[in-house]
Amino acid sequence: MKLIFAIVILLASSALIIFSGASVKVLESQSLNQELNPQKMIAGAFFTKSITAPYLQHKFNVASTTGQKIRVLLVPGHEPHFGGTEYKDLKERDLVVDLTQELAKYLSADDTFEVIVTRGKNSWNPQFEKYFVEGKKAIEDFAVAQRDEMNRLIKEGKISKVPDVVPHNDAPGDVALRLYGINKWANEYGVDVVIHVHLNDYPRKRVTRAGEYTGFSIYVPEKQYSNAETSVEVSTKIFNRLAKLFPVSDMPKEDMGIVEDQELIAIGSFNTVNAASMLIEYGYVYESQFANPKIAQAVLKEMALQTYLGLHDFFNEAGSPTVGVHDTTLLPFEWKTAIKKNQNPSQDVLSLQAALMKRGSYPPAGSSKNDCPLSGTFGPCTRTALAVFQKEFDTQGERGVVGKETRDWLNSLYGEVGR
Fold first, then answer.
1. How far is CA 368 from CA 249, 250, 256, 371, 418, in A?
2. pLDDT by residue (tens digit) across 37-58?
3. How many other CB atoms sit within 10 Å of the CB of residue 237?
4. Residue 40 DSSP label
C-alpha cells in the first residue's frame, strides 16, 4: 500500500542482531558507533552528497581487508500487527516479512554484507523497539528540525517543493514517528543501503476484486536530497534484475519504473536519510502470483534473489554471483508429471513459465509480462507459449498439454540433467 513511510531469530536478544557472512553476529550499539564514517553522522546536509557510489564501491572492494562490510537495513513495510494493504486473506505486512527473510538469507551468506532487519511478523527487533521508546523525544526533535530546515530553504528559494508524482496515504502520527526513528537510527549507525519492502495497491470501488494495475516499481528520493543520486544508481541495478522476470507497474506515472518522491518518509522526507535508500513495491497484492501460498513463497524467494543480484551488480557487476546457470531459483527443474488445462497452480507450471521466458516465448508475442506473469497457472498465455516451444522441437500429439515428449525436451534443456 502507498503509505508514507523477519527474521524470527532477530527477536531473541536485546542486542542488535546483524547478519554477517554465513553466521548471525550480535553487536552492541557502542561497537557500531566506533566504526562510523564521520560524514554519515550529520543528517540533512542539503547541497552535498551524504553518500556516493565510489565510496560504497570502494568499501565493498576492501571489505575483506578492513572488515568494514556493507551495512544493509531491511525494513518490511508497516507494523507487526497492523497497517498495509489487504486482499481477501492476504496481508501485505506478512508477505513482505517473508520476502525480507529470503533477501536477508542471500545477503547474510555473502561475506561482504551485514544485514539488519527491523521487525518480524509479530514484533519489532528489540533494538528498534527500545530505540523508539527511549529516543522518542530525540526522534521528534530530529524530524521537526529537518522539516524546519527544509521549509526555510524552500522559503528562501534554494529548494523547490515538488508534489507527489503518485498520491500516497498519510501515515498515522505514531507510525510516521517510527519511520523517522528508523531514518535517524540508520544515520547514527552508519547504514549504507536501506531497502523498504512493500506490496502495492490503490483505491478502488470493489476491494474484494482484483484491480486493473500490475507490476513492480521502485521509489527513490527526489533529486534535491543528499542521497538521491546514489539511491538512483543502486535502484537502477536492482530494477534491471527484477525487470528481466517481473512486469513493471503499468499504473500511470508509476510506469516509469523508478519514481522520485519528496514526501515518502521511508526514503527520506525532509532529507532525513544519508544512506542510499529505496522503497520497492514488488507488485500489487491482488496479483495472481500471490494468491496461492506455495506459488507466492516461490515468487517471493525469486524476487529476493533478483534484488540481491541487482544490489551486487551495483557493487561489482563483473563479479556478481551466479545461481546455477540460469540465475534463478526456478531453474533447473525436473518435470515428472503431465501438465494439463485447468489444473491447480503448481511449481511445475511456474518453472515451465520460467523456462519458456528464458527461451523467449513467454510471454507470447503480442502480450506483456503484465498480461502473462510468472503465476504458476496453466492459462492461455502459457499454452500459447508452449505451442511455440512444441513447434520448435516438433513434438507430436501433445498440443495444449505437457506430455512425455515435451517433458523430455524441457528436462534436457532446463532440468538437472541439462544444467
1. 11, 11, 16, 5, 28
2. 434 445 567 888 999 999 999 9
3. 19
4. G
Distance CA 21, CA 19 (A): 7
Q: Let me know: does 169 contact 1? Beta carbons within 8 Å.
A: yes
- Which phi and psi angles does 54 have, rounded to 5°? -60, -40
At 154, list the grid cell: 524552500
Rounded to the nearest angstrom, the gap between the alpha carbon of residue 350 and the centroid of all alpha carbons in its chain is: 20
| pLDDT of res. 164 | 82
Q: Which of 1, 2, 18, 258 is nearest to 117 (CA)?
A: 18
User: For residue 417, with 0-12 CB atoms within 10 Å meaning exposed, 13-18 middle and 19 or more buried, which class applies?
Assistant: exposed
Residue type for position 261: D
d(CA 348, CA 295): 10
In the predicted model, is pLDDT for residue 34 greater than 70? no
**Cell, residue 55:** 565510496
Is 88 a residue whose pLDDT tops 90? yes
Residue 289 CB neighbours (<10 A): 22
Which residues are within 8 A (CB) of 341 and not within 5 positions of it... i.e. 6 or more apart?
A: 378, 383, 400, 401
